[in-house]
Design a protein that fits this description.
single chain, 344 residues, alpha/beta, Ribosomal Protein L15, Chain: K, domain 2, manganese, nuclease, hydrolase
Length: 344
Amino acid sequence: MAHHIKNTLYITNPESYLRKKHDVIIVEVEKKEKIRIPGHHLGSIILFGRSKISHYALDWCIKNGVAVTRVTRSGRYIGNWSGPVKGNVLLRVEQFDKYKNEDEKCKLSQSFIKGKIYNQRSMLLRSARDIDDEELEKSLRKNAAKLDKILNIIDDSDSVDQVRGFEGIAAKNYFSVFDHMIINENDIFKFKKRTKRPPRDVINAMLSYLYVILNHDCRTALEAVGLDPQIGFLHEIRPGKPALALDLMEELRPIMVERLVLTMINRKQVNKDDFEFKAGGAVEMKEDFRKKLIQQYQEKKQNEIKHPLLDRVIPYGLIPFIQARLLARRLRGDVEEYPPFIYQ
């Protein structure tokens, strides 16, 4: 089966300037043309740091459904431009009705987090099978068993707050042995705990950066099926926060981001020179490595995996779009439960 995934253009050079000529987007650096891309090949654009886009190019993107997202140099989300709302307005009415129903919010939140915990568990068990150290293997399997116990009781939760509590316990168990999945013995890859704003080590810097990009992909997928990315169920809503995109990406974090980071580190595709260590303890990636990380993420999206529900092979990059469609079916009442993507 043929698949078509429109490209995301990542602009990481702070001196970049995007302009439009006819239906072509041109990227310039210091007034020298670097690349030109036919607009119909573009699905979205992410602007990092001080990179700029002309009013004409931005207007063209908005009118032609090419979402433009701006993030900081380190990858923190700032804002988004997109065109007119797409999709059936009745779907968004259903989405809002479910948001106002606490029982529905709880059930949907359970589905998102069960998917996340299942995939975290799979990560631990996969590493346990591959590792040579018996003690580390026992530790990974022990924590995978703890995640199993949470999966067995999470459906008993009767509020979104309780679901969040279970998610927090699972995350603590998962990340407490994340370091055991790293076989690269370089000291800079020692992982103690999840830190953000700012990241305090190289692994957290990579994770945070890729989470932003995954969030962008989930937001694009939700908008493509006509859902409002700001009306979420698990994550609290507030102006400008893509709460539903954050909901959708929960189940995808382990397989789309964390697996990629571990693979790159264990294959020694990352080294200390790829990072800047700030006086206050913050760690940032250098520009060349950010480009490399994005390239690796894009290549992963082209890799194929069997979708457990559809029972067919698809590119990783299609997973957010398929899950967004399944979520839309759940909100319309076509199915009783939202089926998260389970990595097997």
